[in-house]
Amino acid sequence: xxxxxxxxxxxxxxxxxxxxxxxxxxxxxxxxxxxxxxxVAKFRTIIIVAAIGVFAGAVLSNGMMDIARHGIxxxxxxxxxxxxxxxxAVMVTDVVLLDVFNTLGLPTSTTVSMVxxxxxxxxxxxxxxxxxxxxxxxxxxxxxxxxxxLSVIMGxxxxxxxxxxxxxxxxxxxxxxxxFNYKKNLSWTIGIFGGIAVTxxxxxxxxxxxxxxxxxxxxxLAWIQENTAMLxxxxxxxxxxLMQVLHWCRVNVFKVIVLLGTFSLALAFAGNxxxxxxxxxLAGFSAYTDYVANSNGxxxxxxxxxxxxxxxxxxxxxLVISGVIMVYALATSKKAKNVIKTSVDLARQExxxxxxxxxxxxxxxxxxxxxxxxxxxxxIPVNVxxxxxxxxxxxxxxxxxGAAFDMVRASVNLVLxxxxxxxxxxxxxxxxxxxxxxxxxxxxxxADRAWSRESAVYRITGVLSVIGGWFIxxxxxxxxxxxxxxxxxxxxFFGMFAFIVVAVVLLVRSNIRYSKKxxxxxxxxxxxxxxxxxDKSETLALLRQHVQETLTDYVGFCEKTYVxxxxxxxxxxxxxxxxxxxxTDDQKKMLKKRRRKExxxxxxxxxxxxxxxxxxxxxxxxxxxxxxxxxxxxCEPCKEHVDNxxxxxxxDCVKEFLPVRDELCKLMERAKVAISQDNYEExxxxxxxxxxxxxxxxxxxxxxxxxxxxxxxxSLKASMVYLNILQESQxxxxxxxxxxxxxxxxxxxxxxxxxSMIALTEEx
Length: 764
What we know:
Blueprint: H1 2-38, H2 43-60, H3 66-71, H4 80-104, H5 110-132, H6 140-143, H7 146-178, H8 189-209, H9 218-226, H10 228-248, H11 253-294, H12 316-332, H13 334-347, H14 360-379, H15 382-391, H16 407-426, H17 433-447, H18 456-520, H19 525-532, H20 536-570, H21 574-603, H22 607-643, H23 651-676, H24 683-710, H25 716-747, H26 753-761
């Protein structure tokens, strides 16, 4: 029996390793998004700074593991078996849940997930124990701490409201002081700003990052608390002078602030959130050692866990190993970069590829905000508006190469996050590090006018999605862990083993899927270069390349899918038709994203060039969309026909159709090659043969209609589907001919307006 539970404890530690890996990937957004978004240094340098902070925080922490031992449940009323069920269910749920959020690229709170998992597992066992208690003396309050759940929920609301308002106001004031061309306004303000920032971060390191370190005695903490005003005042004077001197020595003070802020948040994260990753396994290990040493023959259902009421004494080796794993995860995790990318993209200064779509609530918020803005424009005096607009002149923005926002905003993000977390700690408000850092970044981006009317609805949808994910985390963590605990409690070792296998399989499957997804969704380097280029001619060249790749891809996709659909109908392959339908839907979503990117590129061109290219761009883009609709109109009747097991198409129809299909695919392939190689010498020949093919398909249509009128076909339903294929095939030829012509003129030089009109109306 003891051997079995030793195996469970070992597996808890194995899950803890996974939890550290996926947890750090998720929480990396807390302390790295500002440094990465502002490009204050190379990514490797940022990683090194954050890694030092993470390792120091983990090792200096005394492992505040009490929340996992007795912060949620009262162990004196639970047996060894019940505690092990709860702890194993928590770890299985936590690892899988965090990995799902990381894969989706959404930041969530490891504190919320662990607390609500513990609550879920404890709640279900408490209910079972109350129901089975013959004395009727046990109550829910005897077994679980419901106040903790309420404090965490309150923390979500406080984090969102306070952080967003403060982030917006402080960033707005900071921008008025420094403007986007901040290097012109640093004469004396930088010293004061740097003094405030470094003093705040230093105080944050002491109060939030090192308060649990072994060398921080109660006496030292009491002395710091008694002399806070003197310490803060002295540090402010010293650091103000130091920052001003560094500025005179041509040191970028903002870089110092951002890197110090990254270090301080990483230190605090590791020191305070380590319990979220290894607290549960350590509680299980402590319970196991207590049972082995003191059970004296008592059964696993009878030995109560009163020993967990004492404070944890975490061995240093566990802290060191945890620190090493966290540093490794930080340096190697691709999912960490994915989560950081979500936060950075939502706060990006310039327009670009938006990760999220549009939601009804976001549209309502944007409309209301626009109305308020219109009212303020009418109320504020013209001179004041001009002065404010001058401070927010984006044409003067100073951005590092590839940066999403400037160093002023990055500094404000980090300093404010630290200050708000300190305030929450002092006032005993449970502010989440994840929530504070993310929402401050969103508020500061709003104040910086990064959310234009063209992108606001997408950004707000993204923020709402992340916030919604936080509440979903709490609900899902509570529910799933309660269910897993319930099953484990009644199935004993079999259920435990089954869930262990399920957790491992889900983790492996998730990582395999993520790797495949990452390969498919490769980074769009052409778009990034196009959006960052200041040279209009280079922007045009990159836009041409991007459009060329889009048109080539969609012609190739339509050719392949057309064959797949028609083969699926002829061979009655339902699976192939379903795959074609799903692939077409995915391509429609992808086309929408590509089209938005290319419109953003078109806006960056000189107005005369943009007007010239606009017609041909939209003709090509609309042609891609129409090809997809055409494929769907072919696929849906075919899929319905095969799914209902109706009679197949006659061999005579197949025999006459295949040569036409082969000719159509051959011409589409030639068109694709012409577009991809930007060589249109054979375009006229391709267009002519396409016109001839349309006539051939038209003849087949008339022939098929005559057959149907004469009643020669065995199956009217199959004949109707075949007629639809011919009609849509003829339409498909017209569409890709439009697309080839659009690509030809878009990639070429100036086209006279009369030629444009002739080209557009030739086949209408």
